[in-house]
């Protein structure tokens, strides 16, 4: 007995509707067939279906439009797209829109049955995973995701849909939004959960060592290679490799990464042999990769290979209802970690209002730092506005993107003489100026600032700076 029972076929060719109805009925499915996109949506509104088999080109409504509207109103629906005018771009569009698979016409009826069997197996894994995990999401201090906003729930629904399959995912979002948490959630909800989750920040590794770190090296491959080393792909074999800041990869490493994604094999530095690996790659970026492709700094074929599905993590300013929830979780965490006695009980109404009104350019990471500071400084049972960073309540608040007012710092905020604040503002202005001068090149900017590349990346995240935006201003 198949797991799926009801199937809707939407195709303007009578012969396709006829043969699919006969074959699928013979395999135990309850099949209904319609000839255009509008009728497909009406049928989906009138009756529950497990599967939609949808042609791309149909009268009245295009198949991809039908697909998006169907999945928006029926998120549990499994969709398979069919087309005689197939292309890689069209297939990517279908998968990105939520289709389970894409079938090229002409096809043998057994191909459709095989695709349905694969979809059923995925659904079994999803249900078993849900049963084992009880679909529970622990709080952020435990390393998982906390929130009740519609924006976050929509993202988690996408994660639940993508987790059971091995589709490559590109996670985009501002610094501090929690892109690695989303990558971990994809892993723990997947069949790969018992295996390793390996995370690497591509921008924090010197360009000369990145290939060795990712793919490993043989003994004697270079001067300091006194022993052979397994790379991160080998360590993640069977599991998930998370490539944070993937836009920072040098072009030579991009070529090797593309080969892994296409062939499932790696070649350690200095080796003539190749190794097979079974790794799901999840990448993340706060930079616009399409802009890097246009500049020639990122390979177009790798971009399309990584960007099969894009998950955008919303900034905290788009999920303000989550701020008090996250703040309370951080307070509980820092009460434990800092051994507060008596522990901080929570926030005053005024402090909570300040948290919700602030734009949080540094996102969840900035909120976390603010709560650690507040727990340290609080003398009362509840956190007061005075315990929060000055930027939240000073007379000259930050702008919509967290930028500070220009001019004499002594004259800002009613004569603020905080040396610490002045140093931070000066440091931020120098970093922005260096990025503008180098057109967003972080390596060259670090050299101009006379700090390490790693230190620059940390400060960019700390201040919520967008290097690409600074490059455009330059």
Provide a descriptive summary of the structure in words.
The chain has 474 residues and is of the alpha/beta class. The protein has four domains: 6-130, Response regulator (Rossmann fold, 3-Layer(aba) Sandwich); 144-314, Rossmann fold (3-Layer(aba) Sandwich); 315-393, Helicase, Ruva Protein, domain 3; 404-474, Orthogonal Bundle (Arc Repressor Mutant, subunit A), CATH 1.10.10. 46% of the residues lie in helices and 12% in strands. The chain has helices at residues 14-26, 37-46, 63-73, 88-96, 109-133, 150-162, 179-188, 210-215, 232-235, 251-263, 289-295, 300-306, 323-337, 349-357, 363-377, 390-393, 419-437, 442-449, 453-463, 467-473, and strands at 6-10, 30-34, 51-55, 78-83, 101-104, 169-172, 197-201, 240-244, 265-266, 275-276, 280-285, 309-312, 346-347, 382-383. The strands form four sheets. Strands 2-1-3-4-5 form a five-stranded parallel beta sheet, with helices on both faces. A hairpin with an 8-residue loop joins strand 9 and strand 10 (275-276). The longest helix is centred in the N-terminal third of the chain and has 25 residues, at 109-133. The chain is globular. Residues 6-120 form the Response regulatory domain. The modification 4-aspartylphosphate is found at residue 55. Residues 394-414 are annotated as: Disordered. One of its GO terms (biological process) is phosphorelay signal transduction system. InterPro entries: AAA+_ATPase, AAA_lid_NorR, CheY-like_superfamily, Homeodomain-like_sf, HTH_Fis, P-loop_NTPase, Sig_transdc_resp-reg_receiver, Sigma_54_int.
């Amino acid at each position: 007995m198949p797991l799926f029972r009801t199937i809707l076929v939407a195709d303007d060719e009578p012969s396709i509707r006829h043969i699919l109805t006969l074959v699928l009925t013979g395999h135990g499915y309850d099949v209904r067939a319609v000839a255009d996109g509008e009728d497909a949506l009406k049928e989906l509104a009138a009756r529950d279906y497990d599967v939609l088999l949808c042609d791309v080109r149909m009268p009245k409504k295009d198949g991809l439009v039908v697909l998006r509207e169907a999945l928006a109103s029926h998120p549990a629906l499994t969709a398979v797209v069919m087309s005689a005018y197939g292309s890689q771009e069209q297939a990517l569009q279908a998968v990105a829109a939520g289709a389970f698979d894409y079938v090229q016409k002409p096809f043998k009826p057994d191909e459709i049955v095989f695709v349905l069997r694969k979809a059923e197996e995925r659904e079994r894994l999803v249900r078993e995973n849900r049963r084992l995990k009880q679909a529970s999401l622990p709080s952020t201090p435990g390393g998982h995701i906390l929130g009740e906003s519609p924006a976050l729930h929509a993202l988690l629904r996408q994660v639940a849909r993508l987790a059971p399959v091995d589709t490559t995912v590109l996670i985009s979002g501002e610094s501090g939004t929690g892109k690695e948490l989303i990558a971990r959630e994809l892993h723990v909800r997947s069949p790969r959960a018992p295996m390793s989750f390996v995370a690497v920040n591509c921008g924090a590794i010197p360009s000369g060592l990145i290939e060795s770190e990712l793919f490993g090296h043989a003994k004697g491959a270079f001067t300091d290679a006194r022993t052979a080393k397994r790379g991160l792909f080998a360590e993640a074999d069977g599991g998930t490799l998370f490539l944070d800041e993937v836009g920072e990869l040098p072009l030579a490493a991009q070529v090797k990464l593309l080969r892994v994604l296409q062939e499932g094999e790696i070649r350690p530095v200095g080796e003539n042999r190749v190794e097979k690996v079974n790794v799901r790659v999840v990448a993340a970026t706060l930079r616009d990769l399409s802009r890097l492709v246009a500049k020639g700094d990122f390979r177009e074929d790798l971009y399309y290979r990584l960007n099969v599905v894009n998950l955008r993590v919303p900034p905290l300013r788009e999920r303000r209802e989550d701020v008090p929830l996250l703040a309370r979780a951080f307070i509980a965490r820092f009460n434990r970690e800092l051994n507060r006695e008596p522990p901080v009980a929570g926030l005053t109404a005024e402090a909570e209002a300040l948290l919700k009104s602030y734009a949080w350019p540094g996102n969840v990471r900035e909120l976390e730092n603010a709560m650690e500071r507040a727990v340290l400084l609080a003398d009362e049972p509840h956190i007061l506005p005075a315990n929060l960073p000055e930027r939240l309540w000073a007379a000259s608040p930050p702008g919509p993107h967290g930028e500070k007012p220009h001019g004499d710092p002594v004259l800002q905020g009613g004569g603020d003489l905080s040396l610490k604040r002045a140093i931070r503002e000066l440091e931020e202005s120098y970093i922005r100026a260096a990025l503008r001068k180098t057109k967003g090149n972080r390596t060259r900017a670090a050299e101009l600032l006379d700090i390490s590349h790693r230190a620059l990346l940390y400060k960019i995240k700390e201040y919520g700076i967008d290097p690409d935006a600074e490059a455009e201003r330059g």
